[in-house]
Structure formats: structure tokens, C-alpha cells
């Protein structure tokens, strides 16, 4: 889809024994959008003062994705991750049973436009924000 020769990694954490942190799966950076704009130079910047906005978080075709205020709103991204990109403790299922269940647990989401229900850092995180989806 216009991004040939790239290696794509899902930004998903798992939980429990052998848990995987999303931030450890995606490389060291830098990350650029489909138009070559640098979003973050390294993992610390990706989970901090990055350049993710509705205008820079583009599809693989370089198109804007509906966000907060658009109909339909498509800003939710499944992550199962805490704001810093790490897995949740094993006693709090935020990955729908490590992505195997459609009936148990919940799935933590992030927002591509960094606009959550509140104006705080957790709601703007690349890793996760509220609300939590329940399945």
C-alpha cells in the first residue's frame, strides 16, 4: 500500500508469564508518518513529547484518519498498554485474555489524535488512554 520494504510491528502488550511490552516490540526509532514527517526520534520521545496529532497520525496512504469531533470517530487503537508502553500487571486483564477472548476482560486503547476524555498526559498517550473497551 505504498509502504513496501517496511517492517511493521503491532503496538500491543501482553500480560502474565512472559509478558511483552509494546514499546519493546517496535524498535528504537525514529518513527515517521507516510509523508516522511518525524513523529518521534526514540522510544522516550514516542512516549513523551512526541509529534503525534490528528494531522500527523496518517494512514499508510498518507490520508487523515477521523478523530475526535469527526463522524465517525476512528481514533481508538488497541494497545493493551500503559501510557509508557509497558504491560499491565497480570491481575488486571487489559488485553482481552492476551488477545484471545471476545467475552472476557477488557482492551486498553490509545488515541491516534492524542485527544482523550480528559486533558491530561494519560489521555494523550501513545500507549493508552481511557476509555477502556469492555467486550
Quick structural overview:
With 135 residues, this protein is of the alpha+beta class. It has helices at residues 22-25, 43-46, 96-99, 121-124; strands at 31-32, 38-40, 76-78, 106-111, 129-134.
Key words describing this protein structure:
135 residues; alpha+beta; 3-stranded antiparallel beta sheet; two-stranded antiparallel ribbon; disordered C terminus
Please explain how this structure is put together.
The chain has helices at residues 22-25, 43-46, 96-99, 121-124, and strands at 31-32, 38-40, 76-78, 106-111, 129-134. It has one domain. Strand 1 (31-32) and strand 2 form a beta hairpin. It has 4 helices and 5 strands. The protein has a 3-stranded antiparallel β-sheet with strand order 3-4-5.
Largest sheet: 3 strands, antiparallel
The helicity comes to 10-25%
SSE series: HEEHEHEHE
What portion of residues belong to β-strands?
5-15%
Radius of gyration: 15 Å
Shape assignment? globular
- Secondary-structure-based class equals alpha+beta
**What gap, in angstroms, lies between the N and C termini?**
31 Å
Topology of helices and strands:
Elements: H1 22-25, E1 31-32, E2 38-40, H2 43-46, E3 76-78, H3 96-99, E4 106-111, H4 121-124, E5 129-134
Antiparallel strand pairs: 1-2, 3-4, 4-5
